[in-house]
Structures are given as C-alpha cells and as structure tokens.
Design brief:
Structural class: mainly beta
Number of helices: 0
Order of helices and strands: EEEEEEEEEEE
Number of strands: 11
Strand content: over 45%
Radius of gyration: 13 Å
Length: 112
Amino acid sequence: EVRLVESGGGLVQPGESLRLSCAASGFMFSVYPMNWVRQAPGKGLERVASISRGGSTTTYVDSVKGRFTISRDNAKNTLYLQMDSLKPEDTAVYYCGFDSTRGQGTQVTVSS
C-alpha cells in the first residue's frame, strides 16, 4: 500500500520558518520525481516545488523561489520542504506526492 504522511505544519508568524517532512512507504521512493503542492482556502491546487529522482534537479513556482527549498533523502524514503521567510499568502494545506498520488496534507498557517 502506498503511503505518504506529511508532518511539520503549524501556525507561525510572517518571516518565520517551517520544515515539512513527508514519510513515504509502499513504493520505490527513489525512482520517482516528487512534488510538494498546496491548496489555499478557496483556491485550486498549486505545485510549489519538484525534485528529480536523485535530487539533483529542483524547480519552484515563482512565488516561493529563494524562500523554499525542496530536498529528499532516498535512504530514509523522506521528502522535505524547508520554508523560510513565510508570508501570509503561503497559508495552505501542503501535500507531498508523485504522479496523481498525494498524502493527507499538513496545514500551514502564517499569521500575525
């Protein structure tokens, strides 16, 4: 059974940081490019960041470039998203995934 379990979300103030983790199991994690996507209240899904199988290639949506960093540890079957300089507009449920598969998500709220 494929499982993706996100963690690390929470309530932070603007300018603060969070690190999201995604524990993967039930499939060969290292052969799949992985993504972080988010869904803000009342909006559709937005792909935030992607990473290649080996981790050497990453891409980001323009709104998070320079603030977010996606990484992976294939030995631990874990995907990460380091989020710095958070803004209120980053408030969303964040999901990790590959192809059309996603986890249950973790809430990130940025508010003063």
